[in-house]
Amino acid sequence: MQKENSAPTMKDVAKEAGVALGTVSKVVNGLPVGDSYRIRVEEAIQKLNYQVNSYAQGLKANRTYTVALLIPNTIDPFYAALTYHINVALLKRKYRMLLCTTDFDPKQEQEYILMAQHNKVDGIIGLTYNPRLIVEENTPFVAIDRSMGPRIPCVACDNFAGGQLAAEKLADLGCKNVAFLRTGSALVNEPNKRKVGFETGCLSRGLSYEMKILDDADSFSEFETFLSDHIVDGKIIFDGIFCVTDRLSCHVLKVLRGLHQRVPEDVQLIGFDGIRSFGSMDYYCSTIVQPVPEMAEMCVELLLRENLLAKPPLVCLPVTYAFGGTTLDGNAGDGC
Amino acid sequence: MQKENSAPTMKDVAKEAGVALGTVSKVVNGLPVGDSYRIRVEEAIQKLNYQVNSYAQGLKANRTYTVALLIPNTIDPFYAALTYHINVALLKRKYRMLLCTTDFDPKQEQEYILMAQHNKVDGIIGLTYNPRLIVEENTPFVAIDRSMGPRIPCVACDNFAGGQLAAEKLADLGCKNVAFLRTGSALVNEPNKRKVGFETGCLSRGLSYEMKILDDADSFSEFETFLSDHIVDGKIIFDGIFCVTDRLSCHVLKVLRGLHQRVPEDVQLIGFDGIRSFGSMDYYCSTIVQPVPEMAEMCVELLLRENLLAKPPLVCLPVTYAFGGTTLDGNAGDGC
Fold first, then answer.
1. Nearest CA in chain A to B336
2. Which of A175, A322, B91, B148 is most deeply packed, by most CB within 10 A?
3. Which chain A residues touch B84 with a CB distance below 8 Å?
4. Does the distance separating the beta carbons of A100 and B99 come in below 8 Å?
């Protein structure tokens, strides 16, 4: 029974659940225990309204219950959504989050890692661009979208499957002659697999395809030249275009309109990411949706997992397709 | 002169600048000193590449060099931009930021404040919705968009001037009969001044106006009824509409298109906030732009200012107007 007028302790939980104190400790700290034990402990925790005291725990276990997130910014909607969902996943576990926005600066990224290690965070989650990033072995690290070696788990969506899905969707919607437009980091990273996935999908469905790949993230202008070079007798020769991001897709939509091509009637357009305007309204375009809440949850789960053997080097989470007005599978009034 | 092979100290900076050690300390800690002294110290800091050691400073001064930000989420683009710029302003000063997303939950807000105080943050910046939020006197707090009493500085954009500017802009663009549409928190807050500012602008420029004000942030549907009730012989009687946010403005744009009204030819539309698609591309609509980087800088500046007398209860920063395709003052191709 819980004592009157005092907060329930771990001992009270053990008594209520009829298990050993060590079992409660394991559940509270996310260590593996049998399912039936875990359920009994969780029910007792709920019944007694037992609150894990993170601060006291920190003093005891030499933990800070603080995790640093390294991310370029929170202005790009994909980064903004990741930041939010990682924050929620951490706070749910009574962990605090240090936010470190890096502006894509490799030096800044390394500095924040040193700062984070200096201040003894329990771990770091990073979406970084520094190919030579040095992370001390004793600081748990989870990388987003880029493999950093076998000891560091990487979480991404299934970019290959996403590219393949885009090609299959365009084939299902009647396209025969498609294009893939890409701009982005020249670093080896997971999003680059969208290209090979798309090629695989095109080959398996018999679509003829062209690729236009730029490495500089800021120079969208060459796409306009590429697209106008493919207009014959006033009509674009592609009937489907897959853009590597929704951001690029929105730019291409404007370019196509400027070239008097109708979307989706003349050419259908699929982007990638699943960004919605104002964060929660319409999709900007028809798109392959990244499972951001699940990716965030997985980052936190892997970071805090104590069993190192259970940390896989790469976790790819499933993507889905969503209609957003730039394809022929929905109401023309939707999308931007 | 700086010693070889060791990081420069505050003493080295004082020697280089030719000032007392206390003067360097004041500059480093943001305390007031004469401009000529401050410049000499800053030049010496730059020349010697002196790095303030926050962690050692923290131990010495009983500071944590950590600030908590309470904000509903980072998914809404306005909150996302605020979070980013506050993060940058803090990191620039070698302060770390604990991010606490609250999802508008008053209980959650109070809990995070307790947590922040427990973990001895040096201060809290909060965009909160709990009208009964309790903040301990010894924790510096800066509120965004809502006055919380004379001891707590509030930072906002000049919402009154923004409303007035919207009315004046519509008048300049030839409007005679305008409407104001609002939804939002029923709490007394700074954004509510957009309404009185707009009324003032309408009165001074002789515009006739109607208001439709809803309190529930989620029920945009009543606006559709309001707008269709004001269509006479297939044409809307308003020639200008001011929406309290860009988000609402984008919704109204869709509603108007559904009602076969042309924007901006039949009716011009101005929103508020200055949100850009994907965080940095086009404005969604013609809009009154909040100075987010300046607001972020001001929040941090006021929070860390030690001279309590220099903390004003309310700071309103100037807004500007930006064309975004939904008014008659630009190229029709711009905007969404």
1. A336
2. A175
3. 73-75, 101
4. no
Chain B residues touching residue A66 (CB < 8 angstroms): 98
Of B313, B277, B315, B281, the C-alpha closest to B295 is B315
Cα–Cα distance between B269 and B276 in angstroms, integer?
Answer: 16
Residue A264 preceded by cis peptide, ω within 30? yes
Cα gap B25→B29, rounded to integer Å: 6
Residues of B in contact with A246 (CB under 8 A): 278
> CB neighbours of A136 closer than 8 A, spacing ≥ 6?
A117
Instruction: Give the per-residue pLDDT at A32.
Output: 72
ipTM for the complex shown:
0.77
Gyration radius of chain B's alpha carbons: 24
DSSP B206-255: T-EEEEEEES-TT-THHHHHHHHHTEETTEES-SEEEESSHHHHHHHHHH
Q: Which of B173, B167, B158 is nearest to B263 (CA)?
A: B173
A19 close to A40: Cβ distance less than 8 angstroms = yes
Helix runs in chain B, H state only: 10-17, 21-28, 35-48, 54-61, 77-92, 106-118, 159-172, 193-204, 221-229, 246-258, 292-304
pLDDT tens-digit series, residues A174-221: 999 999 999 877 777 899 999 999 999 999 999 999 999 987 655 788
Q: Of A136, A125, A135, which Cα lies nearest the Cα of A102? A: A125
Q: Is the CB of A247 less than 8 angstroms away from the CB of B80?
A: no
Using alpha carbons, list the distances in angstroms from residue B293 to A238, B78, B81, B255, B301.
Answer: 42, 11, 8, 32, 12
Is the distance from CB of B82 to CB of B111 less than 8 angstroms? no
**C-alpha pair distances (Å), A29 with each of A32, A54, A212, A218, A252:** 9, 11, 49, 44, 48
Task: Read off the amino acid at residue A253.
Answer: L
Compute the half-sphere exposure of residue A151: CA atoms within 13 Å on the CB side of its CA. Answer: 8
- Provide the 10 A C-beta neighbour count for residue A103: 12
Instruction: Using a CB–CB cutoff of 8 Å, tell me whether B280 touches chain A.
Output: yes
Flag whether residue A83 sits within 8 Å of chain B, measured between CB atoms: yes
Q: Enter the DSSP assignment of B104.
A: T
Mean pLDDT of A246-263: 96
Residue B271 gets the label, from left (phi > 0), alpha (psi -120 to 50) or beta, of: beta
Cβ contacts of B94 within 8 Å, gap of 6 or more: B52, B54, B65
Structure token digits, residue B295 = 């607001």
Q: What pTM value is reported for the model?
A: 0.80
Pairing of strands B235-236, B231-232: antiparallel
